[in-house]
Amino acid sequence: MGMKGRVLAVFAGVIVIAAVAVTAAFGAHKADPGVTSSSILIGGTFPLTGVASLYKTIPGAEAAYFAYVNDHGGVNGRKITFDIKDDAYDPSKTVPLTQQLVEQDKVFAVFGSLGTAPNLATWSYLNQKKVPQVLIATGDSYWGFSAKKYPWTIGWQPDYPGEGKIYGKYIAANQPNAKIGVLYQNDAYGKNYYAGLRVGLGAKKSQIVSAQSYDVTQTSLAQQILALKAAGADTFVIFATPSPTITALVTATKVGWAPTATYVNNVSANRVFMQLAASNGASLNGVVSTSYLVSPTYAPQANTVGVKLAKAIIGQYAPALLPSLNGGDANVVYGLGAAWTMVYALQHAGKTPTRAGLMKALKTLNVKDPFTYPGIKVQTSAKDNFPIEQEIMIKWTGNGAAGDWAPFGKLYSGVR
Amino acid sequence: MKRFSVAHPLLVIGALVIALLPFQMSGYHTGLGAHVAIFFIAILGLNILTGYTGQISIGHGAFMAIGGYTTAVMSHYHHTNLILTLPLAFAIAFCFGVLVGIPALRFSGVYLALATFALAVSVPQFTLKFSSFLGGSNGLQTSTTKSNAWIYGVSWSCAAILYLVAWLVLRGRTGRAFRAIRDSEVAAAASGVTLPIYKTLAFGISAAFAGVAGSLFVIATNGFAQPNEFAVFLSLTLLIGAAVAGLGSLWGILVGAVFVALLPTVSADVPLIGSSHGQDVVFGLIVIVIMLLLPTGFAGLLYRLRSLPGIRTPVEKEAGG
Known about the structure:
The complex is a heterodimer of chains A (416) and B (321). Chain A is an alpha/beta fold and 416 residues long. Chain A folds into two domains: 233 residues, Rossmann fold, CATH 3.40.50; 152 residues, Rossmann fold (3-Layer(aba) Sandwich), CATH 3.40.50.2300. Chain A is built from 14 helices and 14 strands. In chain A, the strands form three sheets. Chain A has a seven-stranded mixed beta sheet with strand order 7-6-8-9-10-13-14, with helices on both faces. A five-stranded parallel beta sheet of chain A has the order 2-1-3-4-5, with helices on both faces. In chain A, β4, α5 and β5 form a beta-alpha-beta unit. In chain A, α6 runs parallel beside α7 and α9 runs parallel beside α10. With 321 residues, chain B is mainly alpha-helical. Chain B has a domain of 219 residues. Chain B is 76% helix and 1% strand. Chain B has a two-stranded antiparallel sheet with strand order 1-2. The longest helix of chain B is centred in the first third of the chain and has 27 residues. Chains A and B meet through β2, α3 and α4 of A and α2, α5 and α13 of B.
């Protein structure tokens, strides 16, 4: 090799070494996707249009909370960008939209995606790609029970079987001689609730005098309700989605059945649904449900941190949602609460947030979320993959459609 | 759809592009490409029914549901190989198509449209009625899931195979019988075409195509079958795709498929009248514009272009008419 050759060889060697060093440097400090020095990108799929669009207030409230956080220093200096995708509650849209979030937009985490079916359609994909699927808006218990198989997935709200268990415990403690009549939807939703009720009742499950199921496609529930009345039930437990719940309440009144207590599941207990039932002739005397959020319409809670913060944040960052908040739409408070938990977890996900750090923070929670009912804690551990399990009983007070929910008694826990 | 003397080299180039595309695209885009193939197959089926025998259907989403749930059930309960579920879906959807085609013989025009619309509304409800077997609103999951590249390859292979099947069916006696029925049922009957057999056959074949599309649709939704995937709007989407495609042109059907598969995604990022409704508005506006400018669909446009002086006209008049 001549002089020229030797110079070239050295030059080439230097280039190669430099390239390796630079690549190694990048490799060592490679951040997870979606995180830059000044921002964190998260996204989720929500039914902004379509059959479930009444839940679109949830991402609206979440976006408002993130905007508030961004104006107050962000997450350790990083601003949150929240990418809301509309899947219209259709899993065939949820899958491509989630792939878009992960592969094209490169989000740090999928947050708050709404609906059992949409999340079931994407959880194996997200776990395979090791993308956090967190604080998802669904009350099914699959997520809580699947920490080993799907470690990147976690819910937020109390699950349905746990809620059913709470009704069982409450009835066993407060109505020891109740003759219980149950109406449940003949699918996984209703059956899971019913199973929870039986666990909560314990020995008293023998006091279930009749359990009637109905298909969600049925429009009339008269046959089932007459059967419950004929069996002599004085306690009516309804495990149904909103529409059949309203039908059940109206039908019970119309056939002249006046149970001493009626239990309605949380999903169907939105104030709007109760008002609709009352305006169609349902008596709401003795109707009880559960809640886990602060209530901006319940006067004694007006000075709690959560209610004041909710009104301030929605008023400033999402004024279009203010009438819903003040009208008792619990979904707005839900959104604020879930977003609060997300920000808390992001703040504890490492100086430069990592996906593994986020999951670790979410699985070691022990904190009070201001938007949840006073006394309720958001808690998780290696054995407990259900962030919120406590609920407060609420009773419908006031006159028919002009009434509202009022919390009473002590907190119950659906703890495993 | 019969001869491509001008189009042959284009066909080869097109096939090459489709085959090589996934290597250039991310998994997400490959998934979108698979959806184009799925809609291609469904619109091809609808084309046979509506374009060739003149029977309207706003219910093909129901046949997609039947095919899709066949795949989900077989894979979930019997761990059947996903590819094997495709011919099964074809056969079962064919049978349902024939079953629907028989009473449909009594209807025509608006009334047939309404009857098929009723089908589109009611079939997904069966999954809620028999929720323990069919999964209900929590859906039914196949036992295996496949990568987007796999789905893309299988979908386009099916599209090619089924296109060939359609070509074979339509070039011969059956095709002529179909076209005769569309042009005039009375004349067709007078020429010896047994109306009930051919009309029912058209329903069956068209449903079978939609069934395969439905199977691939479920596989592309991460193997998850759920009633909301087969809502009424799916049937309307297929009809829109068929209208944009026009009649009798492979390229037309491709354009129609690309349109209905990709436009919602592309227009999703358009914020108009509030971000959530912008995409519906854009989609609707474009459909209206296309219907005004191209009432015979893209196929009609191609036909007119080919008729321009200077461009060789292939012997394709029959197919276009």
